[in-house]
Amino acid sequence: MTTEADNALTTEILGMRLVSPVVVGSGLLTDQERNIRRLLEGGAGAVVTKTIHPSPPSGGDERLLRLPTGMLNSTTYSRRSVDDWLAIVRRLSVDGLPFIASVHADTPAGLARLAEQVTAAGSPALELGISCLNDEEYGEDTPERVAAYTRAVRRAVTVPFSVKLAAGENLVPRVEAAVAEGADAITLSDTIAGLAVEAATGRVQLGGAYGYSGPGIKPLVLAEIYALRRRGIRIPVLGGGGVQAAGDVIEYLSVGADAVQVYTTLHQDMHGTLDKICRGVDDWLSGTGLSVPDLVGRSLTAAPSATAEGPGAGSANGNGTPAVAGAGAAKGAARGAGSPAGSGGPR
Length: 347
Known about the structure:
Elements: H1 4-9, E1 11-13, E2 16-18, E3 22-24, H2 33-41, E4 46-48, E5 64-67, E6 70-73, H3 82-94, E7 99-103, H4 108-120, E8 126-128, H5 143-156, E9 161-165, H6 171-180, E10 185-188, E11 192-194, E12 210-213, H7 218-230, E13 237-240, H8 246-255, E14 259-262, H9 270-288, H10 292-295, H11 327-335
Parallel strand pairs: 3-4, 3-14, 4-7, 7-8, 8-9, 9-10, 10-13, 13-14
Antiparallel strand pairs: 1-2, 5-6, 6-12, 11-12
Helix pairs in contact: 4-5, 5-6, 7-8, 8-9
């Protein structure tokens, strides 16, 4: 039986109707079928697999470095073979589970072939993991590169797919390139370059700059999504970066994300942390009488708030759960935040 609370949580992305806007992002934690299933059982609306690659890395030293404000990682793609992944995809598909297969290859043609294999095995949606800066072959992301990969996959498959990009320089032209070549959504953001130095010795940890994720990038990604929406770019967005609590999910939805990916924080008490975030979003929606569609893009027309200081200031209280305003006032504000024509609001 579907309840009103269940309906409040639902969102649609990549052709799937999700029971929650919280999506577990691609990474080491989603390299195992058991984890994917348990994360879905734990309340995630969908799970993105670790990135499948036709030539998975066989050597190298893939490491994680925890920082006070997040994590650096030197990881790239799943080391499982394509055949192993195709078997996993078939089993998940047979059970009707909401998952997104993350895929990449060294060339657009190679990615198109891989996308065909994965969708033929039953993946309902794809995420093109084309922006992994830890890949030595990555180089620089350009609109032309994004267009080439997107075009190749769009010609090869009919299932919906998202193109995963990193926040930063020339984001708008890269997004526009993906849109022009047929992407169904954008995932923002992949990790950004980060460096950690050992103060006592000056030694660069991990041996160089690698992907940084964590709360430090959240304001940057929020600003990017907000700017995209203000420019009138309406393609659905899976936002993410630095999500640690329910309040972060609410913020991403408010600036125009249609669903929100969470990953880095799950490296600490994976299932307990996911449960806390999902329950927090559910509780907040129940307390305000709002639904996910009510939240999406409301920041575009909401009046600016005064600067807040001190513990619990802003949108969340001291324990990371968003502060709940009076349900009537909150619902009224959200209903009035629909994007007028030409305002740049989300679709």
